[in-house]
Amino acid sequence: MSEAKPRIVAVDYGKARVGLAVSDPLRWFAQPLGTYSPNEALQRLQQFCAERDVATILIGWPLTLDGEEGLATERVQSYIDRIHKAVPGIAVLKQDERYSSQRAKEAIRAAGARRKARRDKARVDAAAASIILQEYLNEQK
Q1: Residue 27 per-residue DSSP state
Q2: 29-55 in b/e burial notation, b at 16+ Cβ within 10 A?
Q3: What confidence score (pLDDT) does residue 121 get?
Q4: pTM (2 d.p.)
Q5: Residue 1 to residues 4, 55, 113, 137: CA-CA distances in angstroms?
Q6: Beta strand pairing status for 18-23 and 7-12?
């Protein structure tokens, strides 16, 4: 039987909303924590990291379709700086997030959600954070 490990929290940053997701203690599965304003997400991260054993914060890195950095990565880097101040001592890793929102919409549709639920941007952002994290967990296996 596997032993519990410190959790990984994923962040899908957006100017209006930030999706959060967390790994299970065995790091097999990602599950959404919710969607918050950028400031609320930092507070939620602080609270979650204080209550649970968290090893890493994984943040979606919005490369262009060509794999280049741009204005979006500059915004995310600024948010990473805020994360470091909010939860010092926890590693922050970047994970390519290209197409994560599209895959989140597809996953919500495949789960049988109605059209209105598939258009719920907050639900999509939390699902995108889960997809970013799940891909990372799969790569680590």
Answers
A1: S
A2: ebebbbbbeeeebbebbeebbeeeebe
A3: 74
A4: 0.88
A5: 10, 21, 35, 18
A6: antiparallel
